[in-house]
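$ ./design --mode recover --in tokens.txt
reading tokens...
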């Protein structure tokens, strides 16, 4: 499967080694080694952030930026640790949903959903590239040496420029990969949810072509069994990452909204408003993209349930025990079908249309409350 091979190679760019069908022992050991290197590096960054709180307070940088930095670091370390426990489920899940999609979709339409993953991956590099450009700009000023000594590993004790440059490059390389990794998982979730949604919608279109009760029943139970199996695989592989990503995105959105609404002038004067405003926009975009893609699965399942209801209601009602039994089974199973394929975040929340409306209302209400408090 060409698309899965491309996804595996794509994740190499953020230090994530997904498993393959014929994975060797060396590859498994290398994957664990790389994962633990990034976990320890993130733990070091968290310790550095705690140390730099005192420096940031002296420079009068808003405390919300410090909290958002902690949120980002804890999100990264949590995603990496969860990935280590769910690693073996990701590629089999991709193989299962892609195989099911290929059986239903035409060859000309199979690659159209890949643009979702490509678009999210490209967007994931916006913030790290902006921060890199901002850091290079700071290094070119008089405060450059001070920034290096306070913010980089062992820079206070190194005098050789070659070693210093090498450490800066290594740390920046790992930082870029670490900041981009959540975006890659967001793209993977969107890709998987979009594929599962297309499977359900294509199955619905095929089901509409069945006019006889026996063929309708046979196709419905066969295809829904495969769809539920795919949904369980997606849930098992991605629900934990989804819960961490959503908690981080929601926390970051509320933190940044509080800062911009309560202390906008101070943020603008600090020079940090542009990258944080851009990442706030990306966080909102990622949050609603994930929510819509996941909730569309539930919406598509509801449409299939409605199709079964309409088919059964249009049937004649002869005194045929077998026909009545089949119709009863179809109605009962279709009624439970949407709940079987709905996506969740580690069981903490269910992703449907109500979830989007509730979170949107909470964000708007929170912003209105902060504005009213600021006016008083």
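writing sequence...
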């Amino acid at each position: 499967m060409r698309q899965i091979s491309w996804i595996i190679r794509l994740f190499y760019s953020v230090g994530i080694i997904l498993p393959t069908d014929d994975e060797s022992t060396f590859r498994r050991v290398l994957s664990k080694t790389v994962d633990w290197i990034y976990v320890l590096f993130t733990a070091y960054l968290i310790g550095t952030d705690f140390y730099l709180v005192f420096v940031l307070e002296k420079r009068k940088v808003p405390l919300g930026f410090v909290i958002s930095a902690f949120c980002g670091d804890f999100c990264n370390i949590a995603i990496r640790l969860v990935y280590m426990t769910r690693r073996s489920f990701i590629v089999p899940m991709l193989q299962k949903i892609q195989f099911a999609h290929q059986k239903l979709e035409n060859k000309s339409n199979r690659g159209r959903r890949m643009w979702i993953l490509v678009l999210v991956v490209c967007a994931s590099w916006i913030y790290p590239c902006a921060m890199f450009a901002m850091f290079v700009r700071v290094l070119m000023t008089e405060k450059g040496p001070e920034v290096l000594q306070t913010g980089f590993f062992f820079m206070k004790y190194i005098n050789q420029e070659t070693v210093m440059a090498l450490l800066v490059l290594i740390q920046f390389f790992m930082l870029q990969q670490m900041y981009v990794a959540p975006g890659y998982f967001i793209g993977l979730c969107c890709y998987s949810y979009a594929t599962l949604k297309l499977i359900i919608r294509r199955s619905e279109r095929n089901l509409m072509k069945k006019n006889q009760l026996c063929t309708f029943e046979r196709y419905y139970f066969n295809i829904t069994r495969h769809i539920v199996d795919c949904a369980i695989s997606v849930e098992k592989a991605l629900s934990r990452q989804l819960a961490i990503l959503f908690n981080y995105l929601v926390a970051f959105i509320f933190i940044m909204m509080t800062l911009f609404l309560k202390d906008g002038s101070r943020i603008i004067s600090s020079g940090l408003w542009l990258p944080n405003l851009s990442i706030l926009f990306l966080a909102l975009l990622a949050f609603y993209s994930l929510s819509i893609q996941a909730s569309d699965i539930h919406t598509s399942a509801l449409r299939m349930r409605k199709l079964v209801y309409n088919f059964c209601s249009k049937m004649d009602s002869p005194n045929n025990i077998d026909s009545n039994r089949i119709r009863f089974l179809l109605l009962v199973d279709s009624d439970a079908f949407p709940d079987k394929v709905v996506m969740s975040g580690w069981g903490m929340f269910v992703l449907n249309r109500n979830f989007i409306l509730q979170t949107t209302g909470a964000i708007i209400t929170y912003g209105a409350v902060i504005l009213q408090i600021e006016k008083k």
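exit 0
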